[in-house]
Design a protein that fits this description.
This protein is mainly beta. The protein contains one helix and 31 strands.
Length: 389
């Protein structure tokens, strides 16, 4: 009997325990979990990001992962903080099923330095050149170097202005320091005059030339030429404004000494009222040689006017002769203080000729190209070209 009662008592206690446990489970708060991953847009996981869910806080691991467990069901404020900056916020609802919240963060802005140099093709640095990158600008130092710091990663166009001309290079800033180097090629002399007298009419004035004593445009050997008068010593001229203060002058032309003693070209003349053109360099083609004179105010420097003495003369051999077509190229290099001459593409013997410093010509007023022939001589010229630098 006692055993029966004891057994019944135990069964009753067990039943009561089950009832109490069930009641507790029925009224206990429900909980769930939230987990996910925080990465940059590039896919790189972010370690140490602070993830907040309501008042709970978690840190991401080396794989960018975080987890919240045993979180009561409900809706919470959710945020992610990276390097002290809140980069993401939203609402998250915790329910029976685990909530997965992955967060992608824009890649951080990285900065680099752009360094470079600006040099000419001979290796000389260009100091004081303006260099631009975006809306920023700087100038090159004495070594031609420049630098832009704190440049966000990206692709840029670097612009350099030298001698009034812009040069550009693309640069990809994707490292702490990238470099870009400019080599400025010398442009060389510019063609500023080119005349072959093609076109209607026989008046040199139609081609911009001022003449005296009966010059004309004639046809010969399939070309058109400007031709001097024969009876008197005479001249024709045209202004070349780019002669003013030029560092380098090149004059090329085709000529014929048709008859007489000489036909000449005077470069850098400044006095068109005089047959000798004031101050200039004169190159006279004779039947046998090329004669160069330097005139100063219509006189040969240090030589009695009218003596006919040449500063420098060079024999031309078979290249010269009355009636022969000759191409001449005269090069005056002011900076290097020399004159050079070529006949039919060959350098004339004795050239280049060193110009004494006191005979150099570089002014604002020596801007004329003059053609000249002696009395009883006839000269013809065509394909006249002028380059200056």
């Amino acid at each position: 009997m006692r055993r029966t009662r004891l057994l019944v008592g135990l069964i009753g206690i067990l039943a009561l325990s089950l009832v109490v446990t069930g009641c507790l489970n029925l009224f206990a708060p429900k909980v769930g979990e939230v987990r996910g991953k925080v990465t940059y847009e590039s896919g790189t996981p972010i370690e140490g990001a602070e993830v907040k869910l309501g008042t709970a806080v978690a840190k991401t691991n080396a794989q960018g992962e975080y987890a919240f467990t045993k979180i009561r069901h409900g809706t919470y404020d959710f945020s992610v903080v990276v390097n002290g900056t809140t980069v993401h916020t939203q609402k998250v609802t915790v329910g029976d099923k685990p909530a997965v919240v992955n967060v992608t963060v824009p890649d951080p802005v990285q900065y680099g330095k752009v360094v470079g140099t600006v040099k000419r093709d001979d290796g000389d640095p260009v100091a004081g050149a303006t260099v631009r990158l975006g809306d920023r600008s700087t100038t090159t130092d004495a070594d031609g170097a420049f630098e832009f710091s704190d440049v966000p990663y990206g692709t840029y166009t670097v612009r350099v202005e030298v001698d009034g001309k812009e040069h550009t290079e693309q640069v990809e800033v994707n490292a702490p320091e990238v470099s870009v180097h400019f080599v400025i090629e010398e442009a060389g002399p510019a063609l500023v005059y080119d005349e072959d007298f093609s076109g209607p009419g026989d008046d040199p004035a139609a081609f911009g030339w001022t003449t005296h004593d009966g010059w004309s445009i004639v046809e010969r050997d399939g070309k058109r030429w400007i031709q001097s008068a024969h009876e008197v010593e005479t001249r024709a001229y045209i202004e070349i404004p780019d002669f003013a203060m030029a560092k380098l002058v090149i004059v090329e032309y085709t000529t014929i000494l048709d008859s007489g003693a000489a036909a000449a070209v005077r470069i850098l003349a400044n006095d068109t009222s005089h047959l000798r053109g004031g101050t200039n360099f004169a190159f006279s083609l004779t039947s046998s040689e090329l004669i160069m004179r330097r005139h100063t105010n219509n006189n040969y420097p240090g030589i009695t006017p009218g003596t006919g003495n040449a500063i420098f003369s060079a024999p031309l051999g078979a290249a010269a002769g009355v009636g022969k077509t000759v191409q001449l190229r005269i090069v005056y290099d002011h900076e290097n203080e020399q004159l050079d001459a070529y006949v039919n593409g060959e350098q004339v013997t004795g050239y280049p000729w060193p110009v004494p410093t006191d005979l150099l010509i570089q002014t604002e007023t020596n801007t004329y190209l003059m053609l000249h022939s002696n009395a009883n001589a006839t000269g013809l010229w065509t394909d006249i070209k002028v380059w200056v630098e």
